[in-house]
């Protein structure tokens, strides 16, 4: 295919200011034409000297293809993104960690309380995703009475990385986690995504997302 050459500074406009870093000015080869500014048909993986740059997915992009896990009756069970998102409308919200204060007191409870209303508005499934293991997500779901919500474990942050929404929480002793966000997905395509710009639960809350249905 065609090859596009660009300087790293040329892609900074497409990265939110809060996520920009001072990369050296390198020439990067992209093995396909870049989409028009502000539109990402797929997430871009740009490689140069073994460096990789990831841009967050946005409206119109397909969700990453990978295998996640959920807690089943006999233990952790695989859940492919095709099974999670295929041929249905899904509201997925992601958060930094199960059992953490903000997630347990505000984010997940809002979706638990409004699950029936969300589904009545045309959503087939509600999913909660975190970079935790299936045992933790299963136990947290039980503790929160989240029977109407699919508690999804992204244990290796594969989905989170591919979304371009990983959070470096090593300063808190939590390693790699997910940023807090919520998105509506129709048959595997993101139709709306809200990423929290700061602390708190606002843009990704159940109430905010319900207003988009």
Q: How would you explain this protein's 3D organization?
A:
The chain has helices at 81-85, 101-120, 134-143, 158-163, 206-210, and strands at residues 4-7, 27-30, 45-48, 51-54, 67-72, 75-80, 89-94, 125-130, 150-153, 166-168, 176-178, 181-186, 189-195. It is α+β, with helices and mostly antiparallel strands and 213 residues long. The strands form five sheets. The chain has a five-stranded mixed sheet with strand order 9-8-7-12-13. Strands 1-2 form a two-stranded antiparallel ribbon. A two-stranded antiparallel sheet has the order 3-4. Helix 2 (101-120) links the parallel strand 7 and strand 8. It is globular and about 40 Å long.
Q: What's the helix and strand layout?
A:
Blueprint (H helix, E strand, L loop, with lengths): L3 E4 L19 E4 L14 E4 L2 E4 L12 E6 L2 E6 H5 L3 E6 L6 H20 L4 E6 L3 H10 L6 E4 L4 H6 L2 E3 L7 E3 L2 E6 L2 E7 L10 H5 L3
Parallel strand pairs: 7-8, 8-9
Antiparallel strand pairs: 1-2, 3-4, 5-6, 7-12, 10-11, 12-13
Query: Radius of gyration, rounded?
Result: 18 Å
Distance between the termini: 39 Å
Count all strands and give the number.
13
**What is the overall number of helices?**
5
What low-confidence regions span 5 or more consecutive residues with pLDDT below 50?
A: 1-53
* Share of residues in helices: 10-25%
Morphology: globular
How confident overall, as mean pLDDT?
82
Strands ordered across the widest β-sheet: 9-8-7-12-13
H/E element sequence: EEEEEEHEHEHEHEEEEH
Major sheet characteristics: 5 strands, mixed
Strand content: 25-35%
Which class of secondary structure composition applies to the elements?
Answer: alpha+beta
